[in-house]
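Quick start: read one record
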Amino acid sequence: MSKKKPSDKQKEQELRNAYITSTVENIFSYVDNNFSKADIHIHSSYSDSVSTIEEILEYVQNKTDLMVIAIADHDRIDGALEAQRLTKEKGYRFEVVIGEEVSTLDGHILGLFLTKEIPPNLSAQKTASEIHKQKGLAIAAHPFYQSRLKDIDEPVANGVGATVLINEKHHFDALEITNGTPVFGRANVKARYFNRLLLFKAEVGGSDAHISHAIGKGYTLFEGKTAKDLYQAIKHRETQALKARWSPFGLLKYAYSFLPHALRMAFFTVLLGPHPKRHEIINFPSRIKIHRELSNQEKQEHSIIRN
């Protein structure tokens, strides 16, 4: 019995599929060869992480494909300076940026590419100005996450929120719209939606890692390989904020490491009372509606590009 010859329509479809496959492979190849990942928000044992600088550097070297990292401890840069020194000394393949997660009166701000420590408890505007004096970058860290829990020993996650972002728009270089912390999902969605609706700032991602296993769970994709390339990409709004999937084991490890801190926060919150709830100037739609609106926006952008 002779095989049925494919019709012209089938041949045309096969050629189209082959072309699409080849195009996608070329795109992935281009991205692999020309773009890199950076985790711009990592904590060390110099502040409230369980991971030492040495453990962080070894993890990045052997367990990730990150080309740039920023050690951004709370209100100090000595850990970042140590990390940068050790990276050069040991010849690691990646670069370390000096960062600091500054506790301002209005919420947390990431300072990147610093040369000196930024003092805490200044306004958001003053903090950003101090960062820019060093030719650094001022980034709103997890801007829409505010914990109402309290801790007298360690900082508690506190974003600057919508009001500060609007009033001080010109003082921020970027927004952290992807934070790798497992419970920050809705806050991430809000940050992405708000930025694309009103601010149009550079979008960056960071893990906010407090254990080594969390490193790279949020990251920034940029064109180039070096810290200098990352700086230019953020300045020119040519970055993309992405996240990596947590494994069940990783989530268990994270929960186990966070448990003592959570119990301590619960104790002090009961003792001292919670932080007052922040009333924002914008009412966000549901998470589903935000996703739908962002998806429609991306489709429109792709349609414009194709046409």
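The mean pLDDT is 87.
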